Amino acid sequence: MKRSTKTGLLVGLVGVMTGVVWWQIPIEKRTYGLSQTAMTTDYTGLMPEKVAQINEVKKREELVAIVKEAQKAKRTISIAGLQHSQGGHTYYKDGIVIDMRAFNRVLSVNEQQKTVKVEAGASWMDVQEALAKKGLALRVTQSQSIFTIGGSLSVNAHGRDIRYGSMASTVRELTIVNAQGEFETLKRGRDDERLQYILGGYGLFGVIVDVTLDVTDNTVYTMHTTEMKMADYAPHMRSILKDDRIAMHYARISVAPNSFLEDVYTIDYEKMEAIDHTSPLKGESSERLSKLGLDLGRQGGALENGFWQLQRGYMKLIDDKEINRNDAMRSESTFMEYTKPGRVEVLQEFFVPLDEFEAYVNELQQVLPHDDKKNDVKVHNITLRYVAKDDATALNYATDDMMGFVVLLQHGTSEQSIEEAKTLIRQWTDVTLKHEGTYYLPYYPYQTTDQFKKAYPNAASVYDEKQQQDPDIIFRNYFYDNYVKHAND
Amino acid sequence: MPMTKWPLFITVGQVIIFPYYLFWLKNSTLTFSLFALIFALFSFGAALGYHLQQKWTMPIALPIALLGMIYMLTLDVESLYIISVMQVILGFLQGYFRAWHVGQETYKLQVVWHYVIVGLAMVALSTVTIVVPQIFVAIYGFMLVICAIVMALKKCKKK
């Protein structure tokens, strides 16, 4: 081979390989989850623990056997799906973990009654695939479909829909295995008293086996995007709540230093006449480019200003575009993976009554740093969701018609960094409580037990009910230890 | 140290430091696949460096100083994009240095000592706990830069 050809080939090889590596970097995934040989964690990896046993279940009878075995052996049981909760809700030291992921069949779709019956380990992706074929869609789900049904019900999730309330209100019937190892079928209307503890009960009142959910049509929507100042947001929200044509909504408030908590853009989904029976579900797209943009924004400062401008540009692009309900409920998620070693990106959600929105944001502007480029704790994104008042759960975060602030923030994994994050989040929680607000419970235990009790005045009744239904505390996780256990202190 | 002994110091040092460099690299990537791909970059870079040394030469102090600087960068670099470029340059420089070293008269003699010293050094290091590998890597990088400066000065003096 000629010398110059060899040089060209080697240079080409290095170039191509660099391209391959750069192509791969954005979709690198962190490893987390269940492990019997190493430490078990959930999504953040912040609370590693050794568990005694992991049982992957495929049949409902196996669930009964596990609960009875745990009773005899005086072991605890935690229930895990895809483990996107972040505060040790899915495992417990030296306990048994039931891995529900293989328990994932969509049992039936009833087109006349508009219901779907599904096993708890299925993901929303599985359910959407079954529904889309029949022109149906979920009433309430998170913005992404990467969670299990059991997990979402256990945290009583909410999403972009502004008409159907929280997820708990869409449950028609539920089968559980209780702490005595018996099957129980609970029906909406008949067993609401029991259901209020299981839905949004964080796995402390039994294993959800399957559920029948009310669904709706896979309606086609037109997306309307609007930019506005923060002070105009609450009036905008009130106006769309009065307008029956608007079915879904979310908004993003700026965390860029130039416009911190000042600028907002909103996306409203207006109902069209058509129902989509034919379109395949949308998949992930442009995840590498999106991840690159997101990673730049995560640096803070001028890059975060730039990222906000990019997002504004994107919003203009999607204005007046059509989307069906299923696709609106399955946003991309791969690009959101945060892959910086030694740091973690966590979620927090705060809810305040719509009437308090402006005063609350004004106070947050005083408390939160506008430019956190040099801080260890960095607020990277805040989306706004509307959650209608909910009476279906005992640990109820929507005590009124609420605006939810879904906050994405990063911090280091050292003890000092976690303490800094705790300080900021506790301050934020105090401001929220002052404005008659609440915060969401599926996340890392940053808040104090006092804050928990103030946000959830029903917590004592949840504790009492737990003692009654599960006196040996068979169903146990770190949420119980960190909060529920102290509800009566 | 006589000029003929410098290459031995450098090759021994590189082998000793390499496990720590790999710890740092693995800690910087989250999956084994990406780690392996980035390491492949090093290898291809080394092939290019070895090949080009036979074509173009530069004063050897220069690649040694650059090697040292790349090792020192491990203290501060977190971006995988930059790390991947560092891997190419590091591989290139190591390949270049190796090609140069093979051409030296003392190479065969030094290879034997190289293995013996590396073995002894690794035994000694097994008794030391190194919590932050990049500090160790950066210290070696700093020593390489000093070494390159001394080599360059000695060469100037000789001329």
Automatic annotation (TrEMBL), chain A:
Q: Which domain of life is it from?
A: Bacteria
- Organism, by scientific name, is Candidatus Kurthia intestinigallinarum
Single Gene Ontology MF annotation: oxidoreductase activity, acting on the CH-OH group of donors, oxygen as acceptor
Q: What is the official name of this protein in its record? A: FAD-binding oxidoreductase
Q: Which residues cross the membrane?
A: 7-25
Record-linked PANTHER family: D-ARABINONO-1,4-LACTONE OXIDASE, L-GULONOLACTONE OXIDASE
Residue ranges of every copy of the FAD-binding PCMH-type domain listed in the record: 47-218
* Lineage start: Bacteria, Bacillati, Bacillota, Bacilli, Bacillales
Transmembrane helix recorded as keyword? yes
Q: Cross-referenced PROSITE patterns, in alphabetical order?
A: FAD_PCMH
**Is the keyword Transmembrane assigned to this protein?**
yes
Pfam families in the record, alphabetically? FAD_binding_4
UniProt keyword terms in alphabetical order: FAD, Flavoprotein, Membrane, Oxidoreductase, Transmembrane, Transmembrane helix
Q: Which residues form the signal peptide?
A: none
